[in-house]
Amino acid sequence: MRARHPFARRTVREGRVAVTADVDNVVTTVTVRGSWGRSLSRDAFLALKKSLGAHPDAVIIDLCDLDDPHAASALTWITARRVADAMDPPVHVVACAPPASVLADRLERLGAAYYLPTYADLTLARAAATTARPHTDQRRLALPPEPDTPSLARNLVTDACAAWRLPGEVLYPARLVMSELAGNAVEHARTPIVVVVLRRDEGLHLVVNDRDPRLPTLLPAPKEPPGDLWNARGQGLRTVQAASAAWGALPTAEGKMVWATIFPS
């Protein structure tokens, strides 16, 4: 057998990270493909940070197509799990990787303190993620793209705050933010939407899901106030940004979800 040259290079596959949110199950999947290296490490870190920022019930890290022969990425996935465990409420993190891979073996041998549940394929990981922590403090409503949709979405926030006895300093900004998110979806996506209100400790997590894959963009602030404030367009996300602790958007299988989190000031 010919010995491998010490400077021979293995084939490097271009790395790619994809994030997909599942609004129905409040689960986000982060898929990492290609050869592990500095660039893919950075992209994976940013994707995980963005996914955890949306505070789903669970995050699935799909490593089935990751080329990592030395398990160099293991610390990244373990760190994500530990960060998620420290959130309030905690986010359940699971992974899937080929059972015979070096990475799966490394994750299994790290011990209880660094334990990351790892499954053989995405189907098993998804089943574990969707059944681990059912979310009971949740309100959801499917709405058409009609003019009164923002009002109905605001009412869902009001009902949730009343049921969970949340204070007005959560209710009023949450109603404002939900109105903006739902109004943007009606105006720009023009598709049926699903609005979701979830309790997050003493605050709320708001989600608006539509079937338009285009992610929203925060426009630069106008240099001069518009002549007619009632007709000013494109500044709704600035209201969301100002009134919420955090906000963002993630692609879904059929479009996108835009979310925002409100906490007492």
UniProtKB/TrEMBL annotation:
Residues 144-259 form the Histidine kinase/HSP90-like ATPase domain. It holds the Pfam family HATPase_c_2. The keyword Transferase applies. GO terms for molecular function: protein serine/threonine kinase activity. The keyword Lipoprotein does not apply. It comes from the Bacteria. Keywords: Kinase, Serine/threonine-protein kinase, Transferase. PANTHER family: ANTI-SIGMA-F FACTOR RSBW, ANTI-SIGMA-F FACTOR RSBW-RELATED. This is Histidine kinase-like ATPase domain-containing protein.
